Amino acid sequence: MEKEKKRPRDRAVDLASIEIIEKAEKDGVRVSFFRMDDQAAQCGFGKSGVCCRICHMGPCRISAKAKFGVCGADADTIVARNFLREVAAGCSAHSDHARHLVLLLKKVAQGKAGNYSIKDRDALHRVAKKYGVAVEQRTDSEIAAGLADVLLAEFTAQEDHLKTLKLAPEKRQRLWEQLEVEPLGVDRMIVESLHRTHMGVDHDYAHILMHAFRASLADGWGGSRIASQVSDILFGTPVPVRSMANLGVLGERTVNVVVHGHEPALSEMLAAASRDSEIIAAAKKAGAEGVTLAGICCTANEILMRHGIPVAGNFLQQELAVVTGAVEVLIIDVQCCMPGLAEVAASYHTEIISTSEIAHTIGAIPVKFTSEEAYDGAKRILLRAIENFTRRDPSKVCIPKEAKPLVAGFSVEAIRYMLGGRFRASYRPLNDAIMQGRIRGVAGIVGCNNPKQKLDEYIDTLTEELLKQNVLVLKTGCAAIASAKAGYLTPETALRQAGAGLREVCEAVGMPPVLHMGSCVDNSRILEAATEIVFEGGLGDDLSMVPAVGVAPEWMSEKAIAIAMYFVASGIDVILGHPFYISGSENVMRFLSEEAKNLFHASFYVHDNPLDAADMIMTIIERKRDALGINQRMERKLFDMKDRRQLSV
Ligand code: SF4
Ligand code: MSK
User: Which residue's alpha carbon is at the smallest distance from atom 3 of ligand 1?
Assistant: First the structure.
């Protein structure tokens, strides 16, 4: 029997996406949702992780008939090796992103980086001190040069453990030491992952998985943490900022330039150049009212957090933006940029411009971008978009009306100021609210979209449910954009959904209950916020004791696997909306769900239903509260004026 055809409203929850999926159908354009249908019967061996093509005696696949590959590898070895390779790829993506930023910091220090500069001196000094780089009697350039060298050594260290590990709670550092999972240099950890999984090297699934945890720590406490810190130095530490999200941010009468990918360096320059009087005059001359710069995925998050540039959409909306027929130029760099974009763009006037040396796409126009002349390069791209505006075909244009207001920009520092005020900035009010039970705990909802799931549905349902249950929600990546589109990133809407305790605390300190903390590399900020909670005191002396959970509801990328692994290795339980490709090995599954608990005091849970996930999250949070003894204390304690005053400092 033929499978029932999916309707656009079965594929997405937001009206803008539904409208444009319908348009894609009418225009006969194949976007990811339809290509997913073509892949309907996905390979069972691949899904269960038992397909091995690591050497050319294979490919081998494990089945009831063939329990071993040609070399004798069993399902445990093959599944674990494939898994480690995914983790390594995820770590490499974040870490290469970080490396480019550190190299840019070095160029800035040398005065060789064109219009780039140190935007946030406080961040420079703050980070330098954390890494033991002298700041007294030194110029900013000298500090930046010293810091860049220390951070570059985090990638290349051969025998020393990552310095960034020292930013973790003491108890967690001791645990990593005891388990021998303290990573050496990031590059070494990734190279070693590939070596270990080469044919005929590491065959013990548990040993392989321990290295997967170790490599992931090099990402979470190394690459990702470094990327966030250096971005703050170069582009500014985010503070709360208002903006809009969804395809409706595109302009009917403006030149629409959409940036997509992950690296913030070019988009920072585009943000500045789009306000250049020469560019505005050129746009007007071409018959447009101006230039609209908007973002997709995590580049969107980077320039949203720092400039309030609007967000056109999350991962599965990248092609939909093109299908509106109203995008003059879509600029891509690295990670999550679909190769299908060029084919979709061929049906419209949109030009796809790729700017990363390491990422070319057939059908996209490669434009070399150097830091030395980044501003002029950004202007050239904008002028190209303006020229292309004259080729826009009005008969093909359909811009949905939907765009929701939002507040983003919640860095760890911004949260500290909001909680305590400028002069008494502190996480104390948050810790107190958790101890008193008004906030039950914290959930980090992160990650991508995946056409296997209805776009944003799981993320939105889970967010709504956790707010009701008085859980403070931290967001990054495409999950944050989903919440923006659903209206949860405005304090007003989210507060209406929040339970009484959470609402009371958020109103008292002037903080929304859903906090957008940045891009997927900024998941390190969630770890940092959890670490602040530990340092503040009263909620245990390790991350595993804090009533906090990580969730990746609609994840798809290898980076998401690396993130999930470093959360667990840091002591924070992770709920996945769908499983890893490991079901072919009972041992690997047991190791990640049970043994990890013994080792790291955290593990993985899979729930394909968001309400079941919410139940699991509440169970974990309440278990941790019980272990801390704060549930009993709360029963005895009535709120008094002193408590309230503490919350409003
Ligand atoms: Fe097959 Fe072993 Fe080669 Fe993998 S490494 S392809 S299991 S022979
Ligand atoms: S962009 S990794 S789809 S969050 Fe960071 Fe979104 Fe996931 Fe890419």
Answer: 55
CA-based max dimension of the chain: 77
- Among the bound ligands, name the one nearest to the CA of residue 299: 2
Rounded-to-integer distance, Cα 517 and Cα 523, Å = 8
- Residue of 315, 452, 525, 551 to mutate, ligand 2, most atoms within 8 A of C-beta: 315
Kindly state if the Cβ of 297 falls inside 6 Å of ligand 2.
Answer: yes
> What pTM does this model have?
0.95
Residue 290: predicted pLDDT? 96
Are the C-beta atoms of 340 and 350 separated by less than 8 Å? Answer: no
Residue 359 and residue 337 in contact, taking contact as beta carbons nearer than 8 Å = yes
- With a 6 Å cutoff on the Cβ, whether 499 touches ligand 1 is no
Which ligand 1 atom is at minimum distance from the Cα of 70? 8
* CB of 559 sitting under 6 A from ligand 2: yes
Q: Is the CB of 71 under 6 A from ligand 1?
A: yes
Q: What domains, with CATH codes, occur in the chain?
A: 75-235 (1.20.1270.30), 247-396 (3.40.50.2030), 410-630 (3.40.50.2030)
pLDDT at residue 646, rounded to an integer:
46
Atom of ligand 1 nearest to the CA of 53: 6
Residue of 317, 445, 448 with the most ligand 2 atoms within 8 Å of its CB, for mutation: 448
**Residue 73 near ligand 1, beta carbon < 6 Å:** yes
Residue 626 has pLDDT above 60, yes or no: yes
Instruction: Return the axis-axis angle of helices 297-307 and 264-273, rounded to nearest 10°.
Output: 50
For the segment 99-117, the average pLDDT, to the nearest whole number, is 96
pLDDT attached to residue 446 = 98
Average confidence score pLDDT of the chain: 95
Task: Give the pLDDT confidence score for residue 649 in this predicted structure.
Answer: 28
430 pLDDT more than 50? yes
Average pLDDT over residues 386-392: 97
Look at residue 1 in the predicted model and tell me its pLDDT. 54
Ligand 2 midpoint to CA 79 (Å)? 24
> What confidence tier does 41 reach under pLDDT thresholds 50, 70, 90?
confident
Closest ligand to 54 CA?
A: 1
Rounded percentage of the chain residues whose pLDDT exceeds 90: 92
What are all long-range contacts of 352-359, with beta carbons under 8 Å and residues at least 24 apart?
Answer: 353/329, 353/381, 353/384, 355/266, 355/331, 356/261, 356/263, 356/332, 358/96, 358/334, 359/332, 359/333, 359/334
Across the range 132-137, mean pLDDT stands at 96
**DSSP state string for 471-508:** EEEEE-HHHHHHHHHTTTTSHHHHHHHS-HHHHHHHHH
**Ligand 2 binding pocket includes 448 (Cβ within 6 Å):** yes
pLDDT of the residue at 642: 52
